[in-house]
Amino acid sequence: MSSISFSENMRETFSGSPTFPLHIILNEKEYRDNVDITPEEIYQEYYDHKVLPKTAAVNVQEYIDHFRPWVEDGYEIIHINLGHALSSVYQNCCLAAEELGHVHVVDSCNLSTGTGCLSWQPGR
């Protein structure tokens, strides 16, 4: 997920580990975090216009579409997700995992850097 707050250097180091971008809504336009908009652009928008972004959860079908190619290729997927108490993305991912099988969802019980640390260790 894009919420793991890896530095640019760490994103490059773990570029082989897929992440799933969260939806960022800024000025009524939807972006994919770290794909269509960078944290710096979000900060700049706040600095210039005092506009805070909103987020939207990744939905079940998006997770299914994201995981399906790996499942069909025979992979077992471990997905470390935002804490269940912080976002509905965890529940949505669990529903997708139930439908597909072979997807193991880990509740990080964290947000941002805490989730990043959990993601970083297995990737080493």
Features:
5 helices, Rossmann fold, two-stranded parallel sheet, alpha+beta, 124 residues, 17% strand, 3-stranded antiparallel β-sheet, 2 domains
C-alpha Rg, in Å? 15 Å
Shape: elongated
* Biggest sheet, spatial arrangement of strands: 2-1-3
Q: What average pLDDT do the residues reach?
A: 83
What is the beta-strand fraction?
Answer: 15-25%
List the uncertain runs: none
**Major sheet size, sense and barrel closure:** 3 strands, antiparallel
**What string, H for helix and E for strand, traces the elements in order?**
HEEHEHEHEH
* Assembly category: single chain
Characterize the structure shown.
- This protein is an alpha+beta fold.
- The protein folds into 2 domains: 74 residues, Rossmann fold (3-Layer(aba) Sandwich), CATH 3.40.50; 34 residues.
- It has 5 helices and 5 strands; from the N terminus they run αββαβαβαβα.
- The protein has a 3-stranded antiparallel β-sheet with strand order 2-1-3, with no helix packed on it.
- Strand 4, helix 4 and strand 5 form a beta-alpha-beta unit.
- Helix 3 crosses helix 4.
- It is elongated, with a radius of gyration of 15 Å.
- The model has no long low-confidence stretch (mean pLDDT 83).
Summarize the entry for a quick read.
With 124 residues, this protein is an alpha+beta fold.
Question: Strands, helices and their partners?
Answer:
Layout: H1 8-13, E1 23-26, E2 29-32, H2 39-49, E3 54-56, H3 60-72, E4 77-81, H4 89-100, E5 103-107, H5 113-123
Parallel strand pairs: 4-5
Antiparallel strand pairs: 1-2, 1-3
Helix pairs in contact: 3-4
